[in-house]
Design a protein that fits this description.
Blueprint lengths: L4 H7 L5 H16 L5 E3 L3 E3 L7 H10 L10 E3 L16 H16 L24 E2 L2 H11 L10 H8 L1 E3 L13 E4 L3 H4 L3 H16 L4 E4 L7 H14 L5 E3 L9 H5 L6 E3 L2 H11 L8 E6 L6 H11 L9 E6 L1 H9 L4 H6 L1 E5 L15 E4 L2 H11 L3 E3 L2 H10 L5
Helix pairs in contact: 1-2, 2-6, 3-4, 5-9, 8-9, 8-11, 9-15
């Protein structure tokens, strides 16, 4: 690899032992992925802070050094549980200890205690064309697709190495050529399929992941007014059912004003997605029958935005969840603080909604009191929760989720 002066300084330890250790690892990583050189990044998002066992703590302690900090603004992904309310999750005392020690170590390195899977909801976020090193699958696909920033798929533990050096190998989705569409999907709109918009975008993302795998796809036919929360739903689902790190939505996302721009002038055959294929996602991820008991409503995977809270407040206005039904909404600390000040948030409390910060409820068995299905409008939650929590999910629109929670059973 071609090394610049900053790379050599990092490797020689001129910027401190932690950065030197990190750069040595990144050099080996860069050689494996075939990079020619390194490039500066403007931010990093760390997934390595999520508890997976002792090794996560061991690695960050290996990188610690007195007075040595990350070189770019760096945010932290979710933890394995709500750090402020660990009793909400069934987790061992040893896991609680290790998780807290991990987060403390990352804070010592200068990371910000954001504890969110949706760092793009903050005011400061990368601009189109800027290079970043983000981990967390939905954050990666959102940054590349919705923001036009450039990040490859970083994870444990390349993310913190990138933050300590401010450099990453120039490879993968950092390269313009790798960001062009490799396939085109023509899709019907939500009205044609008779799907509520949130269920439509969740289903579209799930089909995208299954069709694309790890390829970059261009999508035609979606509503021109698709918003960021809907792009978030598509990306999160596609990174769950597949390994999608970027997609283009023609006329919506910043690198796809036209299909030609998304393809870079390449000739690519168009594949069609049918309404039946989209509605089949609901059938697969909502295997419940009318009248079955509902244990909980879980939303916020990825973390709820303030606008999503506002919509939920409108839907639950004048309603109350049935006795014994937990209503859990995962979000970031920042959004939770804003929600507390929002004048329109009263109906949420009346309905019985509880905010869960620092984590997502699909990660570990949450303290859901009752037995029965868990309703959600998140394809990501429905995809991962059965294996992680043993709970049976029911993917549906948010409006239907509210009606089920109010009734305490599955309703049409």
């Amino acid at each position: 690899m071609r090394l610049e002066a900053i790379d050599k300084a990092l490797l020689e330890g001129e910027l401190g032992p932690p950065a030197q250790k990190a750069m040595r690892l990144l050099l080996r990583y860069g050689e494996v992925v075939g990079a020619d050189c390194f490039v500066d990044i403007v931010s990093a998002h760390i997934d390595s802070c999520l508890y997976h066992g002792q090794s996560g703590l061991d690695f960050v302690l290996y990188l610690l050094g007195e007075d040595f900090k990350v070189r770019v603004p760096t945010t932290l992904n979710v933890a394995a549980f709500d750090l402020e309310h660990p009793e909400l999750t069934e987790v061992s005392s040893q896991a609680v200890r290790i998780q807290r020690e991990m987060v403390d170590a990352y804070l010592q390195l200068g990371c910000r205690p954001t504890m969110t899977c949706a760092p793009y909801q903050r005011l400061q976020r990368p601009k189109k064309g800027q290079h970043i090193a983000w981990a967390e699958s939905n954050a990666i696909v959102f940054a590349n697709s919705a923001l036009g920033a450039r990040t490859d798929r970083y994870g444990d533990f390349t993310d913190i190495c990138a933050a300590l050096t401010g450099r990453v190998p120039m490879a993968g989705l950092h390269l313009s050529a790798k960001r062009l569409a490799e396939m085109v999907l023509e899709v019907p709109g939500p009205e044609r399929c008779g799907l509520d918009r949130d269920l439509y975008f969740a289903s579209l993302g799930y089909v995208l992941g299954e069709r694309a795998g790890s390829r970059v796809a261009a999508i035609q036919g979606t509503p021109a007014d698709t918003n960021e929360d809907e792009l978030k739903a598509v990306g999160a689902a596609a990174a769950s059912s597949g390994a999608v790190a970027m997609f283009h939505m023609v006329g919506v996302t910043p690198e796809a004003a036209t299909l030609s721009e998304a393809k870079g002038g390449q000739a690519i055959a168009t594949q069609s997605v049918s309404c039946a294929e989209l509605t089949a996602v609901h059938d697969r991820l909502c295997r419940v029958e009318a009248g079955e008991p509902v244990a909980a409503l879980c939303v916020g995977t990825p973390h709820f935005s303030l606008e999503e809270f506002r919509r939920l407040a409108e839907l639950v206005d004048g309603r109350r969840a049935a006795t014994g039904v937990d209503v859990l909404v995962s979000t970031s600390r920042d959004i939770a603080r804003q929600l507390e000040q929002a004048e329109w948030s009263g109906p949420l409390r009346v309905f019985g909604a509880k905010t869960v910060v620092d984590t997502c409820t699909y990660l570990l068995p949450a303290a859901i009191r009752g037995k029965g299905a868990v309703v959600t409008n998140s394809a990501k939650w429905a995809h991962y929760a059965p294996g992680n929590t043993g709970r049976r999910p029911a993917l549906m629109s948010l409006e239907r989720c509210v009606r089920c929670a109010e009734k305490g059973e599955i309703v049409a």
